[in-house]
Amino acid sequence: MARIGVFVCHCGSNIAATVDVAKVAEEAAKMDHVVYATHYIYMCSTPGQELIQQKIKEYRLDRVVVAACSPRMHERTFRKATAQGGLNPYLMEQANIREHDSWVHAEIPVATEKAIDIVRMAVAKAAGLTPLEETRVGITKRCLVIGGGIAGVQAALDVAEAGYEVVIVEREPSLGGHMAQLDKTFPTLDCSACILTPKLVDAAQHPKIKLYTYSEVVGVKGFVGNFQVTIRRKPRYVDASLCTGCGICWNNCPLRPREQEDGTVKGGIPSRFEAYIGRRAAIYVPFAQAVPLVPVIDTEHCTYFVKGGKCGVCKLKCPRGAVNFEQTEELVTEPFGAIVVATGYDLFDARACGEYGYGRYPDVITGLELERLMNASGPTHGHVLRPSDGRPPKTVVLVSCVGSRDEKIGRPYCSAVCCMYLAKYAIMLKEHDPEVEVYNFYMDIRAAGKDYDEFTRRAIEQYDAHYLRGRVSQVYERDGKLVVEGVDTLLGRPVEIEADLVVLATGLTAPAGARELFQTLNISYNQYEFVNEAHPKLQPVETNTDGIFLAGCVTGPKDIPASVAQASAAAAKVVGVLSKEELVSSPMVAEVNERECVACRLCVQVCPYKAIEMARTRRGKEVARVNPSLCKGCGLCVNACRGAAINLKGFTDQQLVGQVAALFAEPLFEEEERG
Amino acid sequence: MEFEPRIVGFLCNWCSYAGADLAGTSRLSYPPNIRIIRVPCSGRVDPMLAMKAFLEGADGVIVLGCHPGDCHYSEGNYHARRRLHLFHRLLELFGLEKERFRLDWVSASEGVRFAEVVAGFTEQVRRLGPRVRPEDILERQR
Questions:
Q1: Residues A169-225: tens digit of each pLDDT
Q2: Are residues A457 and A572 in the same domain?
């Protein structure tokens, strides 16, 4: 028999006005296992808590039941009081006679009877409670940031500034992400590279930050505080410790692009950074301010690799002997305490919307291509010239929502930034050439940020951009000119515009390989492969996996200020984890009875946290084993187990059955039934 | 005297138990017949527990969890839905009316809905009258 003490709270008059607390205590005293019962005006007050502690000692209580408010309110308080009385804190059970009783029922006899039932159930459960120990684990005070765009770099800088080591893993050869490709940023028209690259340099020079560019995360094991992450470092074929970034190699590569006297370019390989409209050599840095300024060799095109050793000019020319064709891929495994996922986005492939003719007509381009055309360091040195004939366009049509808000291609979401960057193009195109006519087909203008609507108005009112509300039905060629057919829904009539250049506002999608990475990290994502937040409103930078945080477009399209804000938020969360000396995890986790386990693996399959792994006992029997640091205590495995070999501490079958049984009969719970 | 059904409710800690708490803080009154058992997740509610409640004397059993897609443990309520759907279909085999059991969703912000669901279910079970006793089922089987 247990020795249970029952403490009934009046909660002032909150409980006592409708529940006869004295009667409840009196009835409780008659229940099995109960050796002491009392009532008091405020159990959560200091004298109330001292009463519990005192009676534990006085009556040698080994379990405590507090009949008061919801355990969601004061469970922690009463566990602490129980612990201070000398008992294991998990030997306290709280009976909710306020929210579930006194506040919802008006008649005293009814509410009192219900309170007695609730206490009886709590006593039955308490009799089955066992002492539980919280697990404490140390923390690796290092943070991994996946993705070296503006979000990742901001998060890394913030965590590093707080004094913790950070590693940034970026799969491209340079930090910078998409922001490095942009020409100007809305609504201030700041030069994108000018505000970004100093941050990249800060990150590269920070004593607490280590960069793994041209690298990918391939394996994640462990749990919050103790992740083991395997990173694949792709070979650059250039020794970063020797390279000075002088540029002799890429300026001598036989495959380098060569500008002709008439301004056209011959040779070279389409550059991803230049949105494939600019060209680069086979050994290259993506852009002039790349961080780190160390080139990589593109083995798909490099003559040395394609033709088996028949080149090597870069190696010959390099004054530092940094080029190394023998370099191989390297796998490194490092420990981390927390992870920030800032993998960003890719642009929707406009070829999927055939009606716009992207990929068919050279003068139908994407927004990113226009960014590069407008950029002074881009392939046209900042002159907006048509790809087909290199002449400046006089009529430009902007088409919004290409791959956004479109059910029929399975992309119903808004890409959040297109309205704004189209307004930016309208202004910039006019700035480049006041003669140009700009038309913008839009569905709605979504300009909800600070100074965003004013910016859009400026494009329309000050720069005279023609905004047409309606969709474009098709783009085709007629007598060598592009014809844009659309509709102006405000005037209710079809529109046809002869255009020199058509710019598609392609939407934002999850980057290639996102799904594989999210699966490796065991974080959940939606059908568009954007990661689900732990809570969309209240935990927007957390995932359902402790210790893994989110920043930027990984959760969905957003603009630069929102990405930066999220990055700093994620950094604050990371610091919250890393600043602790050890992590305490709830002991209310699943436990396998290894004698009963038949290794069927059903529990392994249902566990949402990958907390169960197969292991062998000392005698070699294969069994399921729960990692208490990963287990969140949902109990799915308990129900999945056919052999009743798993139980959930704090919510065991025996305890729950005991509660049910207590309600209808004298307590059935017996000592030997305990698992 | 009118028949007062005895109802056992299994409520998930994160949504429905909090919804019931909210009904309390909002002082929403509902029939007093329900006795609530807190579980971490609706996915923790083994059909065995629901059956046990019926065997012990419950006239009705209700399981409440987070709305689909909102599970604190991301997918526990989907497991509950499949498992308890099957259990629901088997109820009549045990000689119990299907209306004596319900699986429903109440979020932490749905105090009003909690009160409504409980009132509705209580009324539904009240109309059915007392459940057949396990002894009688055993008797019938013999």
A1: 999 999 999 999 999 999 999 999 999 999 999 999 999 999 999 999 999 988 889
A2: no
Shared domain for A280 and A190, answered yes or no, is no
Residue B78 domain-assigned? yes
CA distance B42 to chain A (A): 9
The CATH number given to whatever domain includes residue B91 is 3.40.50
The domain tally of chain B equals: 1
CB-based contacts of A23: which residues, under 8 Å, 6+ apart? A112, A116
Mean pLDDT of chain A: 94
Q: Is residue B139 predicted with pLDDT exceeding 80?
A: no
Domain-embedded: residue B1: no
Give the confidence band of A522 by pLDDT, cuts at 50, 70, 90: confident
**8 Å CB contact of B56 and A72:** no
CATH number, domain at A612?
3.30.70.20
Q: How far is A155 from chain B (nearest CA, A)?
A: 27
| Contact (Cβ atoms closer than 8 angstroms) between residue A440 and residue A431 | no
For residues B44-53, give the mean pLDDT.
94
What domain range is A212 assigned to? 142-234+335-345+511-578
Measured distance CA(A21)–CA(A37) in Å, rounded:
11
Q: Which residue has the tokens 């409670």?
A: A129
Domain limit, last residue, from A552, A578, A604: A578
Q: Is B43 on the interface with A (CB under 8 A)?
A: yes
pLDDT recorded at residue B75: 87
B66 in Cβ contact with B15 (< 8 Å): yes
Residue range(s) defining the domain that contains residue B94: 7-141
The domain total for chain A is: 5
pTM: 0.75
- Residue A414 and residue A485 share a domain: yes
Tell me the pLDDT band of A262, cut-offs 50, 70 and 90. confident
Q: Which of A71, A104, A639 sits opposite B23 (nearest CB)?
A: A104
Average pLDDT over residues A470-482: 94
**Strand residues in A47-108 grouped as ranges (E):** 63-68, 92-96
Nearest residue to A220 via CA among A519, A479, A11: A519
Burial of A589 (0-12, 13-18, 19+ CB in 10 A): buried
A72, A99, A121 ranked by CB distance to B35: nearest: A121
* Whether B76 contacts chain A with CB within 8 A: yes
Which residue is associated with the tokens 């209306």? B99
Q: Are A286 and A295 in contact (CB under 8 A)?
A: no
Contact A634 B40 (CB under 8 A): yes
Q: What is the pLDDT of residue B1?
A: 62
Identify the domain boundary among A292, A326, A360.
A326
Residue in chain A nearest B61 by alpha carbon: A660
pLDDT, tens digit (0-9, with 9 covering 90-100), for A7-23: 999 999 999 999 999 99
Q: Which one of B2, B13, B37 makes the best mutation probe of the A interface by having the most chain A beta carbons within 10 Å?
A: B37
Q: What is the pLDDT of residue A667?
A: 38
Of A338, A75, A334, residue with least CA distance to A217 = A334
- pLDDT of residue B142 exceeding 80: no
